[in-house]
Amino acid sequence: MVSAVLFPRGHSDGSIFDRKLMELNKGMRSMPLSLFLSVETFPSHSPI
């Protein structure tokens, strides 16, 4: 999976990356990847 490359388990913050990976997997089921990436790139607290 691409997400496995984005969030390697060997990282020092493995637990955080594992949670992000779970969030990504849930997001993939509920919305398109492009929408998920746009939300990650432009958080709601950032001005448009």
Number of strands: 0
Share of helix among residues?
A: 55-70%
State the shape.
flat
- Strand percentage: under 5%
Rounded to the nearest angstrom, the radius of gyration is 12 Å
- In round numbers, the mean pLDDT is 61
Task: Please mark out the parts with pLDDT under 50 across 5 or more consecutive residues, or reply none.
Answer: none
Q: Note the gap between the termini.
A: 32 Å
Outline the structure in words.
The protein is mainly alpha-helical and 48 residues long. The chain has one domain (2-41). It contains three helices and no strands. It is flat. The termini are far apart.
Task: Please supply descriptive tags for the structure shown above.
48 residues; mainly alpha
What's this model, at a glance?
Helix content is 65%, strand content 0%. It has 48 residues and is mainly alpha-helical. It has one domain.
Question: What is the element layout, followed by pairings?
Answer:
Blueprint: H1 2-6, H2 14-30, H3 33-41
